């Protein structure tokens, strides 16, 4: 097979995920460059007459879906979904994920957990043996930011990780504000030896709104790379 660049790989994974979509489905639409390929391909199918109803995981995805005239709902009006297709920053052999590189992981997690199936689409560079190469995003309340930052650091240390925690900024140097009005801190922890333990510690911190570890949520990962498409987990 000819070498694929990462963007072609993302599109290939998105195209494979589109095969899972059947008429009448209620879909969760992820956020990010890979998910954007899926939204675009879905939009082309909708233009050909496919009937689906979709819940976007971010304002960015909502805007893109509207451009393609994809019928949209909200998670309040459609709290049960058949399938969510979303990208990831990393996945490990147990299909545990790091998400939130686009700052949308709170809505992404709510939508994924409202779905019978979450299928992740990625290029093969996102596969890791141990999570933590990518900084772990944590959405935090604006109030008490410094307290929360210290508590996250303590939770990371207690879970065998150490590193730096940085407030995410926009290119103009202002704090990045999520669609939900919160800040995001990026935790540069290196290898996370026990993601389940770290996740449990993070949810116990009052200022933490949601962390980017997705554990036991993804049913399958469709990963595309130079060797073609690989499926991890169960698509069905
Ligand atoms: O979690 C996410 C957004 O919050 C994205 O799915 C993740 O960052 C991957 O993005 P991309 O497909 O652009 O590599």
Automatic annotation (TrEMBL):
<feature type="binding site">
    <location>
        <position position="126"/>
    </location>
    <ligand>
        <name>substrate</name>
    </ligand>
</feature>
<comment type="pathway">
    <text>Carbohydrate degradation; pentose phosphate pathway; D-ribose 5-phosphate from D-ribulose 5-phosphate (non-oxidative stage): step 1/1.</text>
</comment>
<feature type="active site" description="Proton acceptor">
    <location>
        <position position="108"/>
    </location>
</feature>
<comment type="similarity">
    <text>Belongs to the ribose 5-phosphate isomerase family.</text>
</comment>
<dbReference type="InterPro" id="IPR004788">
    <property type="entry name" value="Ribose5P_isomerase_type_A"/>
</dbReference>
<comment type="function">
    <text>Catalyzes the reversible conversion of ribose-5-phosphate to ribulose 5-phosphate.</text>
</comment>
<dbReference type="InterPro" id="IPR020672">
    <property type="entry name" value="Ribose5P_isomerase_typA_subgr"/>
</dbReference>
<keyword id="KW-0413">Isomerase</keyword>
<dbReference type="GO" id="GO:0004751">
    <property type="term" value="F:ribose-5-phosphate isomerase activity"/>
</dbReference>
<dbReference type="InterPro" id="IPR050262">
    <property type="entry name" value="Ribose-5P_isomerase"/>
</dbReference>
<protein>
    <recommendedName>
        <fullName>Ribose-5-phosphate isomerase A</fullName>
        <ecNumber>5.3.1.6</ecNumber>
    </recommendedName>
</protein>
<feature type="binding site">
    <location>
        <begin position="86"/>
        <end position="89"/>
    </location>
    <ligand>
        <name>substrate</name>
    </ligand>
</feature>
<dbReference type="InterPro" id="IPR037171">
    <property type="entry name" value="NagB/RpiA_transferase-like"/>
</dbReference>
<feature type="binding site">
    <location>
        <begin position="31"/>
        <end position="34"/>
    </location>
    <ligand>
        <name>substrate</name>
    </ligand>
</feature>
<dbReference type="Pfam" id="PF06026">
    <property type="entry name" value="Rib_5-P_isom_A"/>
</dbReference>
<feature type="binding site">
    <location>
        <begin position="99"/>
        <end position="102"/>
    </location>
    <ligand>
        <name>substrate</name>
    </ligand>
</feature>
<comment type="subunit">
    <text>Homodimer.</text>
</comment>
């Amino acid at each position: 097979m000819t070498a694929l660049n990462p963007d072609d790989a993302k599109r290939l994974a998105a195209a494979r995920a589109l095969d899972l979509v059947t008429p009448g489905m209620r879909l969760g639409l992820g956020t990010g460059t890979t998910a954007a390929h899926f939204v675009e391909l879905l939009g082309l199918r909708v233009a050909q007459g496919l009937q689906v109803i979709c819940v976007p995981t971010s304002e960015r995805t909502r805007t893109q879906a509207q451009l393609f005239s994809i019928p949209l709902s909200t998670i309040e009006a459609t709290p049960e979904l058949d399938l969510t297709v979303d990208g990831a920053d990393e996945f490990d052999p147990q299909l545990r994920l790091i998400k939130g590189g686009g700052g949308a992981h709170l809505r992404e997690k709510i939508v994924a957990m409202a779905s019978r199936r979450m299928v992740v689409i990625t290029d093969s560079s996102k596969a890791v043996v141990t999570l933590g190469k990518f900084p772990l995003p944590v959405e935090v309340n604006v109030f008490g930011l410094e307290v929360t930052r210290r508590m996250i650091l303590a939770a990371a240390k207690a879970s065998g990780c150490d590193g730096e925690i940085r407030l995410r900024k926009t290119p103009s140097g202002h704090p990045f504000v999520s669609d939900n009005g919160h800040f995001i801190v990026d935790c540069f922890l290196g290898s996370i030896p026990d993601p389940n333990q770290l996740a449990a510690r993070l949810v116990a911190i009052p200022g933490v709104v949601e962390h980017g570890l997705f554990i036991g949520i993804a049913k399958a990962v469709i990963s595309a790379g130079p060797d073609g498409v690989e499926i991890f987990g169960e698509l069905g």
